[in-house]
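Notebook, bench 3.
Goal today: get a predicted structure for Na+-dependent transporter from Bradyrhizobium agreste so we can plan the truncation constructs. The sequence was checked against the plasmid map this morning, with no discrepancies at the termini. Length recorded as 335 residues. Pasting the sequence as submitted so the record is complete.
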Amino acid sequence: MPSSLRAVLALPLRALAWLGGQGTRAVAAIAFMAVAVPPLGALLRPYVTEAIFLLLCISFMRVDLVALYGHLRRPALVGAATAWTTIGVPLIVALLAHGSGLDRSSPGLFLALMLQGMASPMMAAPALAALIGLDATLPLVTLVAATALVPFTASLFASLFLGGMLSISPLALGLKLLGILAASLLAATLIRRLFGTEAIQRHRQPIDGFNILILLVFASAVMGDVAHDFVADPLFAIAVALLAFAVYFTLLAVTTLIFRRAGTERAFAIGLMVSQRNLGLMLAATAGALPPTTWLYFALTQFPIHLAPYMLMPIARRLTARADRLRGAAANSTT
């Protein structure tokens, strides 16, 4: 590469590396930046599908295949976590929402909760787990399994509970999900073949920085109208925001309790993954053809998604330190 071209590329790479090094601070700041600049949301909303595709490509590109194969040797725990996030969560959400009459009193909110429950975990969830000091390998394997299943489980739950609430049929929803996931996996595989795993690992921080920029595109597109919604109906917007936080932390707490026998650190990592639902994938699959209340809920879920890793870091560090002490004590007892 000519020295002049290398010099031109060095500055943006350094900027991306700096941004990637900001970690949870940058992820948390995205939510506030997206709300603070509404025109940015209007500009970027047409590119939601492209942003989701790039986020998926980056996540698939960085899958640690060695860790993936290692955890496949423990299929029981992976299978249980996958069944919980793909079947247990949407089923419980559907039963609670139906039982409370939400499908009749607020169809848009009911649709939002159902799409959230039906979604697979966010592709960035293992990276966020690692970012706050948790072991990300188990969430990674569960994420891969859940993502492979979600076109089929989402189609099933859509046909059972959503009826004609979606602008596309349940079968079309499943096929679109499958197409998006397959295309992003193919693109990520080609990138790995072209550049190699070592190069991807070597440029980890610039890739993190680029990932944060794409997250900003997605968050701005989804959250561009939040400020207007708060001004138009502040009580309703606050209630929806509180519901978004309640759902997030309930999923985190319940999942951690369910899997606590696997170890508190692992259970907490699985809980973090389950609570981070990939609503962007659902937006891409439905082409954003959703009611305003559904959009508002999706927008406000970005606050717990982006703020929770920063808020949960002290807890994760204590759990990691406790797990290290237990492992050390077990090692000493065997010597």
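The chain has a mean pLDDT of 81. The chain has one domain: 29-319.
Flagging this for group meeting.
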